[in-house]
Amino acid sequence: MPDNDRRLIEDLIPIREISAEASREKSLRHGNISTLHLWWARRPIVAARAAVYGALVPAPSDAKERETYMARMRKLCSWDIPSGVLEQARKDILEANGGQPPRVLDMFAGGGSIPLEALRLGCESYAVELNPVAHIIELCTLIYPQKYGPSLIADVKKWGEWVIERAKAQLAEFYPFPQSEQHTTNDIVQSTLTDEQDVIQSNGKLTPIAYLWTRTIPCPNPTCGATIPLVRQTWLRKKEGNYIALRMVPDHSTKKVLFGREQAATLKELGFDPEEGSKRGNATCPFCGAIATADFAKEQGQKGNISRKLMAVIFTRQGRQGKVYLANIDWLSGNEDAIKSQIDILCCQVPGKLNIKVRTNKGLLAGHDLWHSDQVTADAVLHEAGTGYKNCSSAQLLAEILQACDRSGVPLRRA
Questions:
Q1: What is the DSSP letter of 312?
Q2: CA 129/CA 143 separation, integer angstroms
Q3: Is the dihedral of CA 365, 371, 377, 381 positive or negative?
Q4: Is 123 helix (H, G, I), strand (E, B) or coil?
Q5: Residue 133 phi, psi dihedral angles, 5° rounding
Q6: In contact, 117 and 45? CB cutoff 8 Å
Q7: How is 167-224 classified by DSSP, letter by letter?
Q8: How many other C-beta atoms are found inside a 10 Å radius of the C-beta of residue 117?
Q9: Of 81, 131, 395, 402, which one has the fewest beta carbons inside 10 Å?
């Protein structure tokens, strides 16, 4: 490349249009690679497209050519690219590189936005990434769609649902549905679940989608004997006009903390600060006010004294939008002996998956200690269910995904 080879990106780039499209991209829930898997540092694909195109095409030589490129860039840097614009961009890049597709290397590819847009612009794209989660995302974004074609969508949906249903059957006893008392009044059913009430339509079956837990440690004050939750904040919903959070309520008879659901239209009406939890690993005992330091929490973790407390369960309602948040759930008893027995069986079927040595700020030394027993069971069950693909038409794809997970140490699911 000659010293005077000025690139388009050095001369012009429609910052305002790219910024607007990048902001809009955040709200897209269909067709965007951001919905494939959460990646914290994901770059907007319209910005990645502009950067790749601008770096591979020379700067305009005169004012007329500059206007042409500016108009072309504005069309190219939009979510809904007009017909023919992408083809023209590929032609521009080929002409600028002697008719050969240029090679684009992203040494820190992350979620894969730059390699993906380089591919779409007709380049030879190479992605390098050390993080195993990002590596799996890149395989699913860059490799599998090219390798398996349009049938990939239907195959992933079909066999993904197959794995989920198979796992649900095995996990039903560990993640039970609520036992409710129903009181019918005309066409409305009022469902009462452990002191929490929610009015739903008669067809409004509740389906649990998330279980919110917190770790707990004993109070450092030997005369107190209470249990301290290590939760940092208790927000469930934080939107203007509808704030929902969990309030910690000390139960002096049991020396344990209960969690009550509070809802208000404003932060002031909520009546407490949901973010008054542990700070920098230090937690305050809600009974005696003693401070459990981060070092104390780590010491309790090494001694095996860290326990857990279910704070709330989040449900969806059949035939309705929105979510239901229930606290103080007492029907999820958690039979630890049954769970541990199931873990032992599954660990024999999935050797080595759950015995990762780690060290954390809570003093937990083994990988399986990072999650409580329900989560370890779900992880192993999903992995075992995912290996039952032998006779499916997408066996090759699923085999590759499993092998990639095995090589990188990434489980199929982490709660």
A1: E
A2: 14
A3: negative
A4: coil
A5: -65, -45
A6: yes
A7: HHHHHTTTSPPPP-EEEEETTEEEEEETTEEEEEETT--EEEEEEEEEEEEE-S-TTT
A8: 22
A9: 395
Three-class secondary structure of residue 125 per DSSP: strand
For the segment 63-84, what is each residue's pLDDT rounded down to a tens digit?
A: 899 999 999 999 998 888 888 9
Which pTM value belongs to this model? 0.59
Tokens of 122: 């007709």
Strand partners, 118: none
Asked if 388 contacts 166 with a C-beta cutoff of 8 angstroms, the reply is yes
Q: Of 124, 306, 330, nearest to 214 (Cα)?
A: 306
3-class SS of residue 4 = coil
Q: What tokens does 69 get? A: 């490129």
Backbone angles phi, psi at 238, to 5 degrees: -135, 70
What backbone phi and psi angles, to 5 degrees, belong to 327?
A: -115, 170
Residue 363, number of CB atoms within 10 A of its CB = 20
Return the structure tokens found at 221. 């004050």
How large is the C-alpha radius of gyration of the chain? 27
Task: Give the list of residues 6+ apart from residue 201 with CB closer than 8 angstroms, or none.
Answer: 187, 188, 189, 317, 319, 320
Burial class (CB in 10 A: 0-12, 13-18, 19+), 215: buried
Backbone phi and psi for residue 297, each to the nearest 5 degrees, phi listed first: -60, -40
Residues 6+ apart with CB under 8 A from 343: 354, 368, 373, 376, 377, 380
Cβ atoms of 69 and 12 within 8 Å: the answer is yes
Residues in the chain: 415
* Residue in the block written with tokens 């690139």: 7
Cβ 136 vs Cβ 39: under 8 Å: no
Reported as a single tens digit per residue, the pLDDT across 244-276 is 999 999 999 999 999 999 999 998 899 999 998
Dist CA 82 CA 79 (whole Å): 9
What amino acid occupies position 161?
Answer: E
